[in-house]
Amino acid sequence: MQDQPHLIQIQPLDETHLYGILAVVEDLPEWFDETARTKSIPIDMRHQEGFVAVSGQRVVGFVTLYVAESRLNIGWLGVAREFHRQGIGTRLLAAAEMKALDLGIDELATYTLGDSVDYEPYDLTRNFYRKHGFSVYKRSRTDNSGCPEEIWISKRVKEEQTTFECTLC
Ligand SMILES: CC(C)(COP(=O)(O)OP(=O)(O)OC[C@H]1O[C@@H](n2cnc3c(N)ncnc32)[C@H](O)[C@@H]1OP(=O)(O)O)[C@@H](O)C(=O)NCCC(=O)NCCS
Q1: Looking at beta carbons, which pairs linking 159-167 to residues 24 or more positions away fall under 8 Å?
Q2: Which of 84, 115, 120 to mutate to test the pocket of ligand 1 (most atoms within 8 A of CB)?
């Protein structure tokens, strides 16, 4: 039987979640390249806070967070493929918004592949962020052929907006 979203817990991220997170990203190569999977995520998650979605002992989603330029930034976000579209990404985002409020920060931000790049997987990613109120505050061209345009996106976080169901509260 497949896990139901209401049985999935959102918990603070710690180092014991590393292998579970790597199992999630291993199965999402359209979004996480080899450098991300083998180097960036293992290093970053030791230095960033965040949350995991767990089903029993299994990590099925995660978000990492860091503060820069007065924004709470999403470093990495992913949900195991077979759990997509069950509201887990939304719950991780809600946890991130609550974290921002706890820190007295009113803006949640991240960057992703720009919409000038024709690559369908990131259409879904941008749709997810757009649906949750993120809008572009900066565009930049890069010399990385895999990511020639980045968009920097953010949303204002207010107490009354964080009304998602969250097992942390
Ligand atoms: C983006 C992501 C974290 C969203 O998590 P999720 O648990 O699937 O999201 P939710 O169920 O809370 O929200 C679903 C929304 O996300 C978007 N979405 C996510 N997966 C989608 C899919 N396979 N097809 C279409 N839309 C999708 C849609 O906007 C959808 O809204 P809808 O169901 O009303 O159409 C997840 O799809 C994922 O891990 N994607 C790959 C990694 C990634 O993009 N990470 C972020 C940038 S590094």
Answers
A1: 159/101, 161/97, 161/133, 162/94, 162/97, 162/98, 162/101, 164/90, 164/91, 164/93, 164/94, 165/91, 165/94, 166/10, 166/91, 166/94, 166/95, 166/98, 167/8, 167/9, 167/10, 167/91
A2: 84
- CATH classification at residue 64: 3.40.630.30
Neighbours of 91 (CB within 10 A): 24
110 lies in some domain: yes
Within-domain flag for 14: yes
- CB 78 near ligand 1, within 6 Å: yes
- pLDDT, tens digit, 9 for 90 and up, residues 16-71: 999 999 999 999 999 999 999 999 999 999 999 999 999 999 999 999 999 999 99
Q: What is the pTM of this model?
A: 0.91
* 164 assigned to some structural domain: no
Structurally, the chain folds into a number of domains equal to 1
Within-domain flag for 165: no
The residue segments making up the domain with residue 133 are 5-158
